[in-house]
Amino acid sequence: MSSVNNKFRNRKTSSLQNIFSYDKYWAECYGVSEFLPHSLAEMEALGWDSCDVILVTGDAYVDHPSFGMALIGRLLESQGFRVGIIDQPDWQSSEPFKILGKPNLFFGVTAGNMDSMINRYTADRKLRHDDAYTPDDLGGKRPDRAVAVYTQRCKEAWSDVPVVIGGIEASLRRIAHYDYWSDKVRRSILVDSKADLLVFGNGERQIAEIAHRLSRGEAIEKLDNIRGTAFKVSHQQKNWMEIDSSRVDRPGKVDAVVSPYVMTEQSGCSDGKNETKNSIHEEQHKEHHEVAVPLKSIVKSLDRERSVIRLPSYEKVKSDSVLYAHASRVLHMETNPGNARALVQRHGDKDIWLNPPPYPLTTEEFDQLFELPYTRLPHKDYQSKKMPAYEMIRFSINIMRGCFGGCTFCSITEHEGRVIQNRSEDSIIREIEEIRDNVPEFKGYISDLGGPTANMWHLACDDKHIESVCRRLSCVYPTICKHMNTDHEPLIHLYKRARKLPGIKKVFVASGLRYDLAVRSPEYVKELVTHHVGGYLKIAPEHTEEGTLSKMMKPSIDSYYEFKRMFDKYSKEAGKEQYLIPYFIAAHPGTTIEDMINLALWLKENNFRLDQVQNFYPSPMATATAMYYSERNPLKKLSYKSEKVLTAKGERVRRLHKALLRYHDPKNWPLIRETLKEQGRYDLIGDGAKQLVPAEKSRSSSLAKKRRSQERLVAGKKSRNSRKQK
């Protein structure tokens, strides 16, 4: 959304301002530091007597634009602020949080590039002993629920300093959310952490405004009109029209108001002309647990800029899983910056107020942000140590943000949004040249040219007005929207220009590919396959069965076949032997045992033997997580009689789903055999090509086989000894 419709410029929340247009803070006279200081000695070397902002992060400090604390830190530095970093502090006391002194404006707290619980535990809730964002890959360098712990330590260190929390962990826990690791609904992280303000989504626009307003003497309590922020209030906001969506059978007031459930039909986007007429419902209330029958009526246009939707309270969603799914559905339908309304959710005696999402960065802003003076290296204290996350991205280029795919198990929508933010081609080329000329150990290979997806760069709705009012959860499911521009020509041009740069031997594309979009452009597939694949290309069909795919909002497996046909054709034309490596998810909500058996048979038929497989991981706030917890489908309107979703819970069934993806592993055969018998699928047990696992050998047969093996071993030894004697 490089240009924002004037209709949305005059929101009662803060207006859109270029993040680089603020008057510089007085401390800009100190200039730019090689690394943002993370020790008092470094501060003193820069001539600083204090920091204006201190960023606390669960990741080791890497001064690279793929790391959130570097992006935010360098942005604030460019505004003239003195920024210090406390990375991976010992959280057992508040002392490590005092090492840079007292910040003049605020603490900025993040768990790092990953949610701390996902970083620390597997999908089976087992402890990890590694951490890709820590020197030497050591686990245990950050606490569980790091944002809450770090915030509490900051408050202990300097009780009068505001704490602003952000990053992926805060973003995905901004309202009451199901927490997989404790298996319960937890409160908003604002309540648990006792932070003053929460920034959700990409935070550059918000954090720039927060820093400048605080520097002008505004109190943190007054910063209640910044898009992309959440805060606590103990009283009802004035001059706001509240839409009551606290019950599934009463989505709106009795007097006609906009229902929070209204969304454009999945078959195509609305042009917005009849949005008000089609979105007004007058509810006739029935007994509790029954769905009200909506009667359409026409009212005058409501002021969306002053409308706030009341979600069911934390106490309600904690005790009622259907209400939880309902709250999740409403939140996901309020993610388009063009038409999203504010949300509010009660927690005890306070409200958590969420302003609408931030406007995406313009291309100009995005370019400037990524061309700030990053060293692109780990801090000097760490450069002798290996850090897997850095090794993976050190020669990669981020060309875009966001994803309009809407996959229910993915958190990109909740964090980065569905509107694609693009860098310019020239800026991307300049970054490649910067890596080529200045990054140590570069050998001429760009490891990735991508982002959240590989091929959504410069893809967008062909009508900005429609984009600003659309409420579809996905632009490509169940089919690609007729308004979606799928022209890959700009991306093809970028690939060609990048690979022809002097000193560049190869440019790989390793980000996740939307092959249902790619097949719309055979020329793109040809360019990709001919020049940007290193023998293997990873793609993610995720499943083969329509029932499961519908809960994922993923395309039919037919799209995979179409892409594979193109991939094989262009690989052959290029004279290359290349292979597709498909990824699949086990135990996703909506997946039956029969679905997993069919997927296993498909894998065997296509001769795939997967080494690494993944069980569904219920990350906070994802739509699929709401399915997992509630066993309902929030992709549809919720009621107490609405569709139930079969969910794989419990160690045995989750282990079974994962085992079926590795049908070829003998360790999994007993469990698979037992399940096939339970399902009455004896036809799949045996040594035939269309059978899944071999039959269990009898004990006597196994003992005889073992005895014969031992006899051959003894005979072999005797023969070798005899030859030696001769």
Description:
With 726 residues, this protein is an alpha/beta fold. A hairpin with an 8-residue loop joins β12 (280-284) and β13 (293-296). Among the domains are: 6-233, no CATH class; 241-346, no CATH class.
Q: Briefly, what is this?
A:
Among the domains are: 6-233, no CATH class; 241-346, no CATH class.
N-end to C-end Cα span: 86 Å
Helical content class: 25-40%
Number of helices: 25
| Overall morphology | globular
Give the DSSP E fraction (strand runs of 2 or more residues): 5-15%
Strand order of the largest sheet: 3-1-4-5-8-9-16-15-14-10
The Cα radius of gyration reads 28 Å
Indicate the mean pLDDT.
89
Unreliable parts: 1-13, 251-258, 262-268, 270-301
Task: Characterize the biggest β-sheet.
Answer: 10 strands, mixed
Structural class: alpha/beta
- The number of distinct β-strands equals 26
Record the SSE blueprint.
Elements (H helix, E strand, L loop, with lengths): L39 H6 L7 E5 L4 E2 L4 H11 L4 E5 L18 E5 L5 H5 L25 H12 L5 E3 L1 H5 L5 E3 L4 E3 L2 H5 L3 E3 L4 H12 L13 E5 L7 E4 L12 E2 L16 H4 L1 E5 L8 E4 L10 E4 L3 H6 L1 H12 L9 E6 L2 E5 L8 H8 L6 E2 L9 H6 L2 E3 L1 E2 L10 H4 L5 E2 L2 H14 L6 E2 L1 E3 L13 H6 L19 H11 L6 E2 L7 H4 L3 H10 L4 E7 L3 H7 L4 H17 L5 E8 L6 H13 L8 E2 L7 H8 L20 H11 L7 H10 L20 H27 L1
For this entry, give a set of tags.
disordered N terminus, three-stranded antiparallel sheet, alpha/beta, 25 helices, ten-stranded mixed sheet, globular
